[in-house]
Specification:
Layout lengths: L3 H24 L6 E5 L6 H17 L5 E5 L6 H8 L7 E5 L2 H8 L11 E11 L1 E5 L7 H10 L5 E4 L5 H13 L4 E4 L3 H9 L5 E4 L1 H10 L2 E6 L25 E9 L4 H15 L2 H8 L4 E2 L4 H21 L6
Parallel strand pairs: 1-2, 1-3, 6-7, 6-8
Antiparallel strand pairs: 3-10, 4-10, 4-11, 5-8, 5-9
Helix pairs in contact: 2-9, 4-11, 6-11
């Protein structure tokens, strides 16, 4: 029988020989196509952004790398999120998500995933600041006039959203909570009918994106009251931020970021992070995003993780205070 000491030495040597093979396998990543799952339908802003950035990120990964976008809409993003959470953590399946990732767990405790424990952040790549718009017929023309009118007419104004638990819904409720105002929520089945009724004056407020509101702002059918970003937008330099108007630090940002299943190898995470961060910093990508009202970001995994951790308790409190329940 082989002496135990000799056996341990040989096992150690065997393990040492295995390490280079493991490292080599990781250094070859990616060696096959990467799936990027988008929890929204084709053609939506999030989908268009994902495809634009994914194509450039694949180039930066080098070799014959490719990233294939797969749309898996449904259940407010839960179907896609659950699917990716259960995928093998090898770097070949990623999730391109938005604030539904931090809203849904509080809206539905049985969402089927843990937004922190089940995922490894790659990068928050882009964002769309929400803008507060009102129709031409609204009895106010500025943000302060809106606040004054709502305060003197509690419950008489209404706002539209694309549905219960959507990002504009919870952000508007956060805004009203901070202002101490009572405004009726009118949910629609999608952003398009919500915007149509806002323009028609059937509701008096909506949080929207620049790209969908801009044509109606140009005709005067909509007025923009404020933007919910940390700083003014170069697309609307004369529009003040909500923070400037009396709510310091207020943000309503529809961010878009890439996540991988928890346990994805650190080397794969690092490569992916560099590729996605680099993609949004390409001038042609930044320009293409800006024309759609999308701001390029490209932060680190640690920075993205901190944003998720900060938003979870915020939405939990808003949903509790406003008694928001999933449909």
């Amino acid at each position: 029988m082989m002496p135990s000491t000799t056996r341990r030495l040989l096992l150690g040597a065997s393990g040492a020989l295995a390490l280079p093979r493991f490292a080599s396998a990781q250094s070859d990543y990616p060696s096959r196509p990467i799936r990027l799952v988008v929890p929204f339908p084709p053609g939506a802003t999030v989908d268009v952004t994902a495809r634009l950035i994914a194509a450039k990120a694949a180039e930066l990964l080098g070799g014959n790398a490719s990233i294939v976008v797969e749309n898996l809409p449904g259940a407010g993003g839960n179907i896609a999120t659950q699917r990716v959470a259960r995928e093998r953590a090898d770097g070949y399946t990623l999730l391109f998500t938005a604030p539904n990732h931090t809203v849904n767990p509080s809206l539905n405790p049985n969402s089927g995933f843990d937004p922190e424990k089940d995922f490894t952040p790659i990068s928050l790549v882009a964002q769309i600041p929400e803008i507060l718009v009102a129709p031409r017929s609204a009895p106010f023309t500025t943000f302060q006039e809106f606040v004054d009118y709502a305060r003197s007419h509690p419950g008489q104004l209404s706002y539209s959203s694309a549905g219960i638990g959507t990002h504009p819904h919870v952000v508007t409720e956060l805004l009203l909570h901070r202002l101490g105002l009572q405004v009726l929520h009118v949910p629609y089945r999608g952003a398009a009918p919500a915007l149509t009724d806002t323009i028609a004056g059937r509701v008096q407020l909506k949080l929207d994106s620049y790209v969908s509101s801009a044509p109606h702002m140009a005709t005067g059918a909509l007025r923009v009251l404020a933007i919910a970003s940390p700083q003014r937008s170069p697309l609307m330099p004369d529009v003040p931020t909500v923070s400037e108007l009396g709510l310091p630090g207020f943000e309503g940002i529809l961010w878009m970021g890439v996540l991988a299943p928890a346990g994805t190898p650190p080397e794969a995470v690092a490569k992916l992070s560099r590729a996605f961060m680099g993609a949004v910093r390409m001038p042609e990508v930044a320009q293409a995003l800006s024309t759609r009202g999308v701001e390029p970001v490209g932060n680190t995994p640690e920075e993205f993780r901190a944003i998720i951790a900060r938003e979870l308790p915020q939405w939990r409190e808003v949903i509790r205070a406003a008694n928001i329940r999933a449909e």
